[in-house]
Design goal:
The protein is α+β, with helices and mostly antiparallel strands. The chain has 15 helices and 23 strands. α7 runs antiparallel to α8.
């Protein structure tokens, strides 16, 4: 049971859980689940050296998370009650389909339902059919029409530019924000060179101005309960400069996205999308991530992911005031409502502690292009003394017992505090203690917070957006 959750009952849930993946997101999931009283053991495939250090945890480094047959064999051999999927590649590989066929409950959508993330064109089609508000745009399977539409958007009065989105899975780095047509043309031609023949390979949308936020909900075909909102920082460098990455830090709560309005967003975004997926014969069970742009006219859906966000989940799980395992188990079995009722939960939002959380990502030299591996990491013990939590993403323990870098985003350092400012100070203190050759990180995660209820472009009124603006459907 998490600190601050003593008043919430903890019903029996899955006793043996298998988490697929080995990054910081999966480390955070393992860390959270292993602390629940009802959980006897947490398995991780492949896991990591750091994940294996958590209590009640056993890793299977020789089992690939995307090898459906190996995962099913492991799950059945170890008599696991629930499999929790971390990375999107596992979903796209159809591992959940294989687990379902074998009768093993899995928290994660089927390959068909995971198209909501693996295909930007499919996501846009589903959202439009569901009446969810999206940016003006379209999906294209040929270069010339895409170029023509990009020109139309950039030439429109008051245009802020266009956004070019590669259709497939791009590990969070397949989006190019273009201020002008020349940049858009270059991005489109670059994508066209590697595009496969057939269906849409790119989505072109108008660029929206505002601030982004993420709202992730646990779903079971038809119902949804949301975690608190979070904000991710995609750019590599301070001031939102440099290339896009998988995410360089996150914080929660989000002052300009009041949790009181998040329940409304679940009603007008998550639930309609779930209904449309079910109508298409692709019911969705898992974590449905809505990436939002908060504009003066209300929130607009930018994208959907079919799994927990990384690094958002590292900042969200330490804030939860209820056990996660029973909810994931209920969702996997199509009974999220029953699991919520057993925890005496009401409404669309999961309860949290009073703490805020800030996660700072530490990345390897040369990330995001060709990350360097093998650099010795120092300061982990010093960081632990500060009280912060470190979730490992790309590390390996060497023969000398020291951790070394083994990936692009190496770890997430999470600080808690009664305010975002104090949480940030705690995260900064711990992150500053850690070092290796060529380490990259941002120093401005959660440093500048929008006014409460702003949800708007710079210079806009800080007054809260009216609820009517949050409930309008259709294109922006």
């Amino acid at each position: 049971m998490h600190p601050g959750a003593a008043s919430s009952p903890e019903p029996s849930g899955p006793a043996r859980i298998l988490v697929l993946g080995g990054g910081a997101r999966e480390h955070a999931l393992v860390w959270s689940l292993a602390r629940e009283a009802a959980v006897e053991a947490v398995l991780a495939a492949p896991g990591s050296d750091a994940i294996g250090d958590e209590p009640k945890v056993r890793c299977f480094p020789n089992v690939s998370a995307t090898d459906a047959a190996a995962v099913v064999e492991l799950a059945t051999r170890e008599n696991v009650d629930l499999v929790v999927v971390g990375p999107e590649a596992v979903l796209a590989a159809g591992v959940v389909d294989a687990l379902t066929d074998a009768g093993v409950p899995a928290f994660g959508p089927t390959k068909a339902a995971a198209q909501i993330e693996s295909s930007k064109a499919y996501c846009r089609s589903v959202a439009e059919a569901a009446g969810v508000r999206v940016a003006r745009g379209g999906a294209f399977s040929a270069l010339e029409p895409a170029l023509s539409f990009a020109r139309e958007l950039t030439d429109a009065p008051g245009s802020s530019g266009v956004v070019i989105k590669a259709d497939g899975l791009m590990a969070g780095k397949g989006v190019t924000v273009c201020d002008d047509y020349a940049t858009a043309e270059a991005a489109l031609r670059a994508l066209a060179g590697g595009a496969a023949a057939g269906g849409p390979w790119v989505v072109v949308e108008e660029r929206l101005m505002g601030v982004e936020a993420s709202l992730i909900a646990l779903c079971d075909d038809h119902g949804a309960i949301a975690l608190p909102p979070a904000r991710d920082h995609k750019r590599l460098l301070d001031g939102d400069k440099g290339p896009n990455t998988g995410g360089m830090g996150a914080y929660s709560p989000v002052p300009d996205l009041p949790e009181s309005l998040c329940a409304t967003l679940v009603d007008v975004i998550h639930l309609p999308i779930l209904a449309e997926l079910a109508r298409r014969g692709n019911p969705f069970r898992g974590a449905l991530y809505a990436g939002l742009m908060l504009t003066p006219e209300g929130p607009v859906l930018l994208e959907c992911n079919a799994r927990f966000g990384d690094p958002e989940i590292q900042a969200l799980l330490p804030r939860l005031a209820v056990p996660l395992g029973p909810l994931l188990y209920g969702a996997a079995q199509g009974d999220l409502a029953g699991a919520a009722a057993a925890l005496q939960l009401n409404g669309r939002m999961l309860p949290t502690t009073d703490d805020a959380a800030v996660a700072i990502v530490l990345a390897a030299a040369n990330y995001p292009e060709t990350p360097r591996k093998g650099d010795v990491i120092s300061g982990l013990e010093e960081a632990a003394v500060t009280g912060a939590t470190v979730f490992h993403a790309g590390t390996v323990r060497g023969p000398d017992g020291q951790f070394r870098t083994a990936g692009g985003r190496v770890m997430s350092v999470v600080g808690l505090g009664r305010t975002i400012e104090s949480a940030r100070a705690n995260a900064e203190r711990a992150a500053t203690a850690i070092a290796w050759d060529g380490m990259q990180r941002r120093h401005d995660i959660a440093a500048v917070l929008p006014p409460v209820g702003a949800g708007a472009r710079p210079g806009a009124s800080p007054d809260p957006v009216s609820e009517s603006a949050w409930t309008r459907g259709g294109a922006a």
